[in-house]
Design goal:
The protein is an alpha/beta fold. The protein folds into 2 domains: 211 residues, Isopropylmalate Dehydrogenase; 119 residues, Response regulator (Rossmann fold, 3-Layer(aba) Sandwich). It is 41% helix and 18% strand. It has 11 helices and 12 strands. A 10-stranded mixed beta sheet has the order 2-1-3-12-11-4-5-10-8-9, sandwiched between helices. Strand 8, helix 6 and strand 9 form a beta-alpha-beta unit. Helix 1 packs parallel to helix 11, helix 5 packs across helix 6 and helix 7 runs parallel beside helix 8. It binds adenosine-5'-triphosphate and magnesium ion. Adenosine-5'-triphosphate binds next to loops. It is an enzyme of class 1 (oxidoreductase). Its EC number is 1.1.1.87. InterPro entries: IsoCit/isopropylmalate_DH_CS, IsoPropMal-DH-like_dom. GO terms for molecular function: homoisocitrate dehydrogenase activity; isocitrate dehydrogenase (NAD+) activity; magnesium ion binding; NAD binding.
Length: 344
């Protein structure tokens, strides 16, 4: 059996704790992965490097996949966010965040099953900000036909492959006529010309947020530009139990970086209480990505077994504090490991 080499970035705050818990589960499940560890974030700075060291970027280019813990970017010291830099330098233009209700995690809604697809390279994250006068500062929202078309095509292809029925674009094209207008035009165009099989809808984002919290079941795949995708991801995380249970992938043409939606959670770092599930779910996405792009069925099988094990653990009431349980990070990982390959 062949193994896949992959980059592992433990990151900052709760990063190292959740990363090592996830590594243990992957190993116990027999995931055919071999890690090459690299640094980013404050940890890299402390080692005298840049927040995003060249060799970390190079390693991801070379190996094609990475599992990344949350990285902190020092505020207001002239550093560009690690995450934004990484997405730009590797052109990881599609962020994918599946959000689904979990048995055993009590929330307002049952049967939430959404996928958020976020454009990851432009919009207000272009980083173009200016001091215009003493009184005026400005941030530039950038949209290109290339990136808008690319993400729309990616979303429709994803929906088709995953047997999803409908894509809804959240926008504010009534106000931002040019930028959001372009985003909409490109999505419409791809829908009409290439994917008429998928239902397509457009909703103004403020109304969309209201609809999401009233009845999330009416949505399937959401397609959003960068900032809207960021905000709506956390909103949707709240629908299913919070940031501890939402994984993410940042995908480009040749590389993909898998990471939880949550940040470094400095408030609970070092206490051994963080929920490792979001990162574990991200690792499951990594395995499925390897299965799809490299045709490795072992990866698909391991991913499926891990998913069954954590679903069982939650249904049995094994939970970390953020979900109302009393297990620490490692005890929760153990509860998952115990349930790997348990007869049903
Ligand atoms: P960053 O600046 O790195 O994004 P942040 O201050 O935005 O960090 P998040 O990490 O996004 O914080 O977390 C927001 C809240 O959710 C915090 O109270 C944190 O403790 C909680 N939280 C985030 N991730 C987890 C997790 N994996 N397990 C438990 N609680 C979490
Ligand atoms: Mg945050």
């Amino acid at each position: 059996m062949s193994t896949h080499r992959a980059v592992l970035i433990p990151g900052d705050g709760i990063g190292p704790e959740v990363t090592s818990a996830v590594q243990r589960v992957l190993q116990a499940a027999g995931a055919p992965l071999e890690w090459e560890e690299h640094q980013a974030g404050v940890k890299a700075l402390e080692n005298g490097d840049d927040v995003l060291p060249e060799e970390t970027v190079e390693a991801i280019r070379r190996l094609g996949v990475a599992l990344k813990g949350p990285c902190t970017t020092p505020v207001g010291e002239g550093f560009t966010s690690v995450n934004v830099q990484l997405r730009k330098r590797l052109n990881l233009y599609a962020a994918v965040r599946p959000v689904r209700s979990l048995d055993g995690v009590q929330t307002r809604f049952e049967n939430v099953d959404l996928v958020i697809i976020r454009e990851n390279t432009e919009g207000l994250y272009s980083g173009v900000e200016n001091q215009v006068t003493d009184d005026v500062v400005m941030s530039m929202k950038v949209a290109t036909e290339t990136a808008c078309t690319r993400i729309a095509r990616w979303a429709f292809r994803y929906a088709t492959r995953r047997d999803r029925k409908k894509i809804t674009v959240f926008h504010k094209a009534n106000i931002m006529k040019m930028t959001d207008g372009l985003f909409l035009r490109c999505a419409r165009q791809i829908h009409k010309a290439e994917y008429p099989n998928i239902e397509y809808d457009e909703v103004i984002i403020d109304a969309g947020c209201m609809k999401l919290v009233q009845n999330p079941g009416q949505f399937d795949v959401l397609l959003l530009e960068n900032l809207y995708g960021d905000v709506v991801s956390d909103l949707c995380a709240g629908l299913v139990g919070g940031l501890g249970v939402v994984p993410g992938a940042n995908i480009g043409e040749e590389q993909a970086v898998f990471e939880a939606v949550h940040g470094s959670a400095p408030d609970i770092a070092g206490n051994g209480v963080a929920n490792p599930l979001a990162l574990l779910m991200s690792a499951v996405m990594l395995l499925n990505y390897l299965a799809e792009t490299r045709g490795d069925d072992v990866c698909r099988d391991v991913a499926g077994r891990i998913r069954i094990a954590y679903d069982r653990a939650l249904a049995d009431g094994a939970k970390t504090g953020d979900l109302g349980g009393d297990l620490g990070t490692d005890a929760f990982a153990d509860a998952i490991i115990e349930r790997l390959d348990q007869p049903s």
